[in-house]
Structure formats: structure tokens, C-alpha cells
């Protein structure tokens, strides 16, 4: 979108070369930056920038990652679609197994259930 600059942070060694290319190839206004660290380091940098009043006065910032409701709403919609489709066919709540990652995806399922979507158990999976 004209007038919008996007900066994407991603942890070094945690995305494939193809994924790294995809992060920044959709417009001249998008810059993908590899961070020497883990996902949590990227998120800490974003939180620090969002909390910096001086920076916010110079450059209005917003986030589209898992700490933003704008990221969770689309994820909630696919949980709602899956659960409502399952409920219509089987008249039972849908139990979910969600990879944990940074837990944003699981939070979307929890929020959808809190809004009344027929979701039963939400089981978190990890490969640790």
C-alpha cells in the first residue's frame, strides 16, 4: 500500500531460503531483516520499538505479529470455519491439536472458543 513501509524481522537459521525470499518479495515497501537470534529476540525488538515513545513520535509504528489482534482475527476465522463445519456434520465440538510455535496460533483458537465457536479441547503440541 502506498505510504506504508513494512519491516519484517526473522530469526537467522529458522526459515528456509525460499521463506526468507517470500518475506520481502511482495513490494518495494517491504524490507525483510535477518536477526542473529531466535524468534523471541525478534519479538523483544518489536516490543521495545513499540514502547519507545521518542521513536513513536518520529515514526508511527504498528505490529502485525502475534502480539497484535490484527494478526489473531484471521487465524480465529479459520478455526471458526473448521469448528462450525465439523459441528454441522457431527453435532459435537471440534477438538484441536495446535503446534505451539510462539503460541499466537493457539491464542486464536482460545479466543474463538471464548466467543462461542464450538471448539472443545485445545491441545498444544511441541517437538521439544
Automatic annotation (TrEMBL):
Stretches that traverse the bilayer: none
Top-rank taxon: Bacteria
Organism: Streptomyces alkaliphilus
GO cellular component, one term: cytoplasm
Gene3D superfamilies: 3.40.50.1100
GO biological process: alpha-amino acid metabolic process
Protein name: Threonine synthase
